[in-house]
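Incident log, support desk, overnight shift.

02:14 A customer reports that sequence design results differ from what the structure should imply. Their input is reproduced verbatim below. On-call engineer (initials T.W.) acknowledged and began investigating.
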């Protein structure tokens, strides 16, 4: 398995979750890493990215609530999600350039 995501679950609105994605070293060490999400009936959408040196980007709707980070020693990228809203409900995927995708982890936010 090249990318392994975990950490999803059911949380009430306003709650927090932290997603993790462990990547193989050959993928992680030289690449920007991404989180995407896909809600039922919607297209997959970009959530956040982090470059090798820590440069981050976020979709507008999660700015100030989500934080992406990476631990290069553990080949792991994280997505800390706070102040969750029902509209954040989706399957969350980690990704790396070259067509690498994790299996997805379900995040469900109840109102």
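02:41 Re-run completed on a clean worker. Output:
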């Amino acid at each position: 398995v090249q990318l392994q995501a975990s950490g999803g679950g059911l949380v009430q609105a306003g709650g927090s979750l932290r997603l993790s994605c462990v990547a193989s070293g050959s993928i992680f060490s030289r690449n920007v890493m991404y989180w995407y999400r896909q809600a039922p009936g919607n297209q997959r959408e970009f959530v956040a990215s982090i470059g090798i040196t820590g440069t981050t980007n976020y979709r507008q709707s999660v700015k100030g609530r989500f934080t992406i980070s990476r631990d290069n020693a553990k080949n792991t990228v994280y997505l800390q999600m706070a102040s969750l809203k029902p509209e954040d409900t989706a399957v969350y995927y980690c990704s790396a350039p070259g067509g690498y995708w994790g299996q997805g982890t379900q995040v469900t936010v109840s109102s």
